[in-house]
């Protein structure tokens, strides 16, 4: 048996019975049987060592995160996971890396009934590329272009902790607190799948996306796609205890432009307020109304007195800087 | 506009009207509407510079090949393409590379009505990861485990030219001939999509795969999955004119273990002989009966007198050697 087959063995598992998978890993293609009439939701991400994760990152957490960030895209669409593929370039076949990586990957896959249905493994600089598939009822997907002026702007969970974890790891001088309190928010994000599906089934919920590059930057995608603006109530933003020790400016930076949050940012008609809270409760995730959509383009961040705050935050561009 | 957005622009095109794409590039997920009742076929591949293609490879041909090898997996399943995703790591945003790469990629995508529906672009060592989706009628997919003893073994087109092109590029001493006569067989393989769909619709056609790692090595996958053996008639193997000048041993190596052929290898009940020829004719691809499946495990290669030939060829393992 070659090294190549040895690696493949870590990822070859029988497809679970009763799911959508007709034929799993091992043929030219996997075969899936989606629910009749449903639409297929597809998303892909690539993670490169040294760019999306530190060289030497703990492989079990990496296995979790690689899938989590993709599942988060399904969540943001309101889709139910069907399965995923994994393409993996590795510098060498290292059992001590592969075993925990597969463990982290499959623990999350199993928790969300999202089996691995196909893959490719090759030698190369450590790079992971996942593609996830889900299904959603026609017309129920939470698209970015579906927001309307007057919609409430909602956020699941809390933003900023992953950014603080990054700062603590890097030793950025403004960072305060214990890495242990926030590192899982960076290393093991929780895809909000149950919430996304509950929201897709809730009348009056309109646009959604997952916050991966910072709240304001990602809000901009909804605003651009929907041709709208927004006003955010800074005081309404939920603040994690770990962020309380930061100075106000860096705290706001973390909240509004942190990145790596994988929370859902979504809009809903004000009449859906109680239903949105109920969707959050059913999914076990806090949801907070943080602002409102407006006809006037651009975003504003307002303090408790309704005055504009100056925001220096900006989005994250994978090709910006070195 | 960031470098990142500049790159994304090369790949952002409106989804074609009338196809399966409900929502294309630009949201958290793409949305597709497969034909009701059909199964979804999915395959993924990763191509790494220096491993799957030469550093400095011509980008237009690379764009073609990256999609072609994935479409070939759909062809081998008998599936009709619905769309694909592309994850791309690039050392830098280089217009002179991106433009021809996108041209080669989209020319093939358009020819097969297989739109790009999602993607991810990041900085990193040049790596391409594609995932293709297709659809096939339930029960009609050409699976590797479907062969039966007594089936004819068929091959589309001809094998070996891509291997000769590699040898000429590398200057391997046994190689003879003009690179120009064979290089497109290595750089611009033709996915046999029309043939695969015609075969999936042909009664009596059973197992299939695409030959990417050499005929014998890939035949082994059908034999293993189906629990069978096979006898190949060496004299029946179609030989490209470019291989005629080689010594007999290297010619047979190219035919049986060349790699990068992307032809279909498939089995069919002998009663389907005429129907298989008709499927080939309808798809415009030559199909040749090259052997037969047997109950006894393993493969044999027989000369014109029915004697076993000694074959030194072996499969290609991406982790074998340096």
TrEMBL record, chains A, B:
Which residues take part in binding Mg(2+) 1?
Answer: 44-45, 120
| Record: residues binding Mg(2+) 3 | 28, 73, 210
Domain named PurM-like N-terminal: which ranges?
Answer: 26-136
Instruction: Specify which residues bind substrate according to the UniProt entry for this protein.
Output: 52, 260, 316
Residue span(s) of domain PurM-like C-terminal: 148-295
Enumerate the residues binding Mg(2+) 5. Answer: 213
> CDD domains of this UniProt entry?
ThiL (cd02194)
Gene3D superfamilies xref list: PurM-like C-terminal domain, PurM-like, N-terminal domain
Is Protease there in the keyword field? no
The protein's Enzyme Commission number: 2.7.4.16
Organism domain of life: Bacteria
Q: Which sequence ranges are marked TM in the entry?
A: none
Pathway given in the UniProt record? Cofactor biosynthesis; thiamine diphosphate biosynthesis; thiamine diphosphate from thiamine phosphate: step 1/1
Q: Name one GO molecular function term.
A: magnesium ion binding
* Family named by the database record: Belongs to the thiamine-monophosphate kinase family.
Query: What biological function has been recorded for the protein in this entry?
Result: Catalyzes the ATP-dependent phosphorylation of thiamine-monophosphate (TMP) to form thiamine-pyrophosphate (TPP), the active form of vitamin B1.
What is the protein's name according to its record? Answer: Thiamine-monophosphate kinase
The taxonomic lineage of its organism, from the top, reads: Bacteria, Pseudomonadati, Pseudomonadota, Betaproteobacteria, Burkholderiales
């Amino acid at each position: 048996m070659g090294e190549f087959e040895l690696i493949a063995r870590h990822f070859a598992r029988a497809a679970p019975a009763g799911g959508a998978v007709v034929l799993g890993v091992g043929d030219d293609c996997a075969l899936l049987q989606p629910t009749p009439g449903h639409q297929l939701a597809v998303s892909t991400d690539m993670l490169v060592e040294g760019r999306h994760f530190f060289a030497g990152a703990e492989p079990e957490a990496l296995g979790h995160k690689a899938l989590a960030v993709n599942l988060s895209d399904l969540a943001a669409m309101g889709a139910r996971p069907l399965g995923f593929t994994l393409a993996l370039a590795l510098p060498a076949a290292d059992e001590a890396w592969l075993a925990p990586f597969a463990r982290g990957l499959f623990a999350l896959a199993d928790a969300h009934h999202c089996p691995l249905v196909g893959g490719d493994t090759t030698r190369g600089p450590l790079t992971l590329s996942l593609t996830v598939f889900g299904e959603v009822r026609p017309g129920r997907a939470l698209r970015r272009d579906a927001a309307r002026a007057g919609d409430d702007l909602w956020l699941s969970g809390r933003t900023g902790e992953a950014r603080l974890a990054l700062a603590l790891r890097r030793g950025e001088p403004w960072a305060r607190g214990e890495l242990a309190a926030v590192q899982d928010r960076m290393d093991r994000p929780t895809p909000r799948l149950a919430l996304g599906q509950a929201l897709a089934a809730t009348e009056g919920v309109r646009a959604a996306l997952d916050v991966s590059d910072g709240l304001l930057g990602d809000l901009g995608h909804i605003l651009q796609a929907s041709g709208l603006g927004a006003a955010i109530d800074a005081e309404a933003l939920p603040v994690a205890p770990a962020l309380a020790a930061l100075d106000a400016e860096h705290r706001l930076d973390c909240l509004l432009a942190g990145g790596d949050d994988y929370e859902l940012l979504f809009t809903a008609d004000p009449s859906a307020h109680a239903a949105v809270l109920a969707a959050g409760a059913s999914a076990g995730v806090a949801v907070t109304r943080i602002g409102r959509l407006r006809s006037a383009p651009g975003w504003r961040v307002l303090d408790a007195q309704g005055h504009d705050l100056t925001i220096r935050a900006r989005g994250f561009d994978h090709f910006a800087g070195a």
